Amino acid sequence: MAGAALVVSGCSGGSGVRPGVPDGGGARGEASATGSSTRAADPDEITSDDFAAVQDLLDVRAQALRRGNRKAFLATLDPGNARLRRSQEVFFDNLQDLPVDKLYYGLTESGLRPGEVRGDDPVLRPEVFEHVELSGVDELPVSNQVSITFVERGGRWLVGAENLDETFEAQSRPWYGARIEVAGDPDLLVLTDRDAAVGADALLDSTRSALADAADVLDEPDDRPLLVDATTNGLATQLSNSSGEDAGAVSFSVFATDPTGQEVTGLAGAVIKANPDFVQQLVEDSRTLRHELTHFLLDGYGGTNPQWVTEGIAEYVGYYPGLLSSSTLTDDRLLRQIRQREVELTPAGLWGNDPSLDYLTAEAFAEHLIQTYGLDKYREMMDVFKRRGRTSAIRYGEGIVEKVLRQVYGVSSDSVARGGFGLLEGLAD
Ligand SMILES: [Zn+2]
User: Fold this and answer.
1) Which pLDDT belongs to residue 429?
2) Residue 239 C-alpha to ligand 1 middle, in angstroms?
3) Cys-Cys with 362: which of 35, 112, 266, 312 at CB 3.0–4.6 Å?
4) How far is the CA of 11 from the centre of ligand 1 (A)?
5) Handedness of CA 114, 115, 121, 125 (dihedral sign)
6) CA 423 to ligand 1 centroid distance, Å
7) Using an 8 Å Cβ cutoff, are 74 and 85 in contact?
8) Using CA atoms, how far apart are residues 383 and 206, in angstroms rounded to an integer?
9) What is the 360 CA–ligand 1 centroid distance (Å)?
10) What is the pLDDT of residue 32?
11) 359 alpha carbon – ligand 1 mean position (Å)
12) pTM for this one?
């Protein structure tokens, strides 16, 4: 997926479109020598015909998955491999529980390092892309690279192994791994593990009300399609990012590609990936959900706006109607740290060095601006950063913060910083 745009709304974990760099491509001569069918005569040599046969098998597999034909699906697997069969049956059952609109596979004629398959029969692992569109929550099929190794048994290609491959981190593939539970409306789909302490129905309720709250504060419609994935499938427990963003959940966009996964063709949908270890917390205290849902509702600003702007409003909405101006802080150590911090709007390059203060000060700057000048002005500021960031190569508003604040608010960045720190000072009372 070379050249894929990584668009992340606000804080994000590792999820996103990754370039599909083949690992060990060409390591196996026979697999990489495509178009070599004119050469003589190693019967095991991989040719374009083999790739075509694998694509045919994938077409059969996709049709079986779409139609819920278990027998036809199982017939695409290497027989006698009980472990493969078990994991593939879970995959099959999960997809049957989901509102699948479209499902198909594509591949490139490349040879990646094959997974483990029993015996000495020829194996082949092309770059395979799985495309799945879920009704309601996706606008286009979500493209995920998958690690399937095929084996030729008695002249017929079959699925010999499927592995989770850390190198090709999928964008969003909650249906592969553990058995899932599904709850939802047409435009809000919530997934958890089947045996999770907090089930999909409970998480759906919390999400629906947090979404309504956040949309209400932001004056945004709350019916934009969204998938909330709280399963253990995928890189579920690696959600904290380098800037120490709360590991409870992250929000991101997912993309469609051409069948062979080489070019991004459009935005497919929005996902909030919730850390399954924190679901209880999300349900009991909806602040993190509202924070992430704010990123989702204000999608498209990440990267062009300073982090204190995007994270600030997410924190503001997360705590709302709680305000710093009506809060007190009894943690003397934190108060001392606040007093030692430089009174400035956190520069992009320093964001994440001190996460707890970065988020707290961001909330203070946002609250100061929103309570003094209103939400519309704040949104106008976000739009100005976004416009300027698009036409130039400016990241996180670097170098233009002063200009934008003067243009939108007619004030200096110093005065915004002082306003925010004034709110933090007040926490001591
Ligand atoms: Zn965030």
Assistant:
1) 80
2) 12
3) 312
4) 4
5) negative
6) 21
7) yes
8) 30
9) 12
10) 39
11) 9
12) 0.82
**Residue closest to 382 by CA, chosen among 407, 358, 356, 349:** 407
* Owner of token pair 């479109």: 17
CATH 3.10.450.50 domain position(s) in the chain: 29-168
pLDDT band at 189 (very low <50, low <70, confident <90, very high): very high
Distances (CA, A) of 152 to 74, 103, 105: 16, 24, 19
Residue 17 pLDDT > 50: no
Backbone angles phi, psi at 43, to 5 degrees: -65, -20
Q: 24 or 369: which carries more pLDDT confidence?
A: 369
pLDDT for 33 beyond 80:
no
Q: Tell me how far the alpha carbon of residue 120 lies from the centroid of ligand 1, in angstroms.
A: 50
- How much distance in Å is there from the Cα of 312 to the middle of ligand 1? 8
Q: What percent of the chain has pLDDT over 90?
A: 72
Q: Which residue has tokens 């390092």?
A: 113
Q: Give me the sign of the Cα torsion angle 236, 241, 246, 251.
A: negative
- Cα of 128 to ligand 1 centre, how many Å? 33
pLDDT tens string 67-105: 999 999 999 999 999 999 999 999 999 999 999 999 999
